[in-house]
Amino acid sequence: MLYLLRNAECFAPTYLGSQDLLIGGSRILQISPSISLATNTPIQELDMRGKWIIPGLVDSLVHITGGGGEDGFASRTPELKLSDAYEAGITTMIGALGTDSLTRTHSNLLAKARELQHGGIHCLCHTGSYHLPVRTLTGSIEQDIVYIPEFIGVGEIAISDHRSSQPDMAAICDVAAQARVAGMISGKAGIVSIHTGDGSSGLKPLLDVANTSDIPLSQFYPTHINRNPTLFNSSMDYLRSGGFIDLTTSTTPEILASGEVKCSQALAALLAEKAPIEQITFSSDGNASLPLFDENNTLKGLQVGRVSSLWDEVRDAIQQENIAPEIALKVATLNPAEVLKLSSKGRLRANGDADLLIIDPDSLAIESVMSQGTWRILDQKILHKGPFE
Ligand code: ZN
To answer: Distance from the CA of 60 to the center of ligand 1, in angstroms?
Structure first.
């Protein structure tokens, strides 16, 4: 089956104007202002006049096997459902463990990633967790990244957090060195995903490593940078030093009231300071626990992160913060794909992967989702659910 999507306003995420897209197999075969075909192959032609076509979203941090557990076993958050990912417009995601690497395991993480791949999601993983020394699947970071196709980096390694292993600079440096070389050998990102907590040292441990070793700051991919004003305000210098930052879209009214900076507003503030947009990403932290601690680090409440928050914050950046769509779209498409060295994800191009979303330009609602050349949602009707949904 070939698909010809006609007359769509195309964001690649660069704005391309009105384009026709020809899709066959799992690929975009052609993007052109006008495509004419003479073929006997069955073709579904859809007029997309007035709609946007954008790349499928890339979510660089999802707790696909669930996370949390900061309030006992009853606070373990659930696994991600396939339909949740498609309804959120996410076609590429990175799964990771978090606080709990005792009852949550890498073998389960890998199996869950393969379940999601079977359902049409490009799902990869990180080895490790908050904990140092790292726990891995095969015994080392290097072996996991080099030998297991799905493992592209390590993390979330926790720093500046009361739940971290309180790692010293040498321990962080050692993890980064292993991930870096394993990434080079295997042609992967070898990125070190960093869970940044509310601790007063903030991003300093990463700057210390970069300033005193040969590990570049860009080896690290720190997330939750919008979690408090002090950490967020330090991010501009961090960006100017060449680092990437990731802002977490999942939140609650209580967490925002306690000082977290709403993602879309954080992006607007960074752009007002002329921050380098290429170094900024959003991720959902989907299915993580969202604990609320008081000033003594006593747990006050716990909710669960949602993958749907990723598009909600991109939408709010466009609608409420008046950020140009082709800029706002980058933080959840091209930018994370570049950080993670996923060269065919997060962008629309001829001979690229057919992962795309159809968006209503007025409401910015996700109307249709295609991954790997197959409709998963069409006209807001979900066509593809997980095996037991
Ligand atoms: Zn985290």
So the answer is: 12
Output the CA 133–ligand 1 centroid distance in Å: 17
End-to-end CA distance of the chain: 27
List Cβ neighbours of 22 (8 Å cut-off, separation of 6 or more). Answer: 2, 3, 4, 28, 29, 30, 31, 35, 37
Q: Which of 20, 285, 316, 355 is catalytic?
A: 285
Mean pLDDT calculated for residue range 231-248: 98
- Axis-axis angle for helices 263-272, 229-240 (nearest 10): 40
Expressed in angstroms and rounded, the spacing between residue 321 Cα and the centre of ligand 1 is 26
- Respond yes or no: is residue 285 known to be catalytic: yes
Calculate how far, in angstroms, residue 289's C-alpha sits from the geometric centre of ligand 1: 9
**Closest to 17 measured CA to CA, from 45, 56, 52:** 52
193/87 Cα distance (integer angstroms): 25
Compute the distance from residue 281 Cα to the ligand 1 centre, in Å: 15
Token look-up 């373990």 returns: 76
Q: What is the mean pLDDT of residues 86-97?
A: 98
pLDDT at residue 136, as a whole number? 97
Tens of pLDDT, residues 244-294: 999 999 999 999 999 999 999 999 999 999 999 999 999 999 999 888 888
- Strand ranges (DSSP E) for the chain? 2-11, 15-24, 27-32, 43-47, 52-55, 57-62, 90-95, 122-127, 151-159, 191-196, 220-223, 245-248, 280-283, 289-293, 299-304, 356-359, 366-371, 374-378, 381-382
Tabulate helix, strand, coil % of the chain (nearest 5).
Answer: 30, 30, 40
Quick count: other Cβ atoms within 10 Å of Cβ 381? 9
Residue 39: the pLDDT is 79
Encoded amino acid at 200, one letter: S
152 within 8 A of 145, measured Cβ to Cβ: yes
Output the pLDDT for position 343.
96
pTM for the predicted model, two decimal places: 0.97
| Residue 54 reports pLDDT greater than 90 | yes
Distance (Å, rounded) from C-alpha 377 to C-alpha 366?
A: 9
Gap from CA of 335 to ligand 1 centroid (Å): 19
φ/ψ of 357, rounded to 5, equals -125, 145
Query: CA-CA distances (angstroms) from residue 34 to 309, 347, 354?
Result: 35, 20, 18
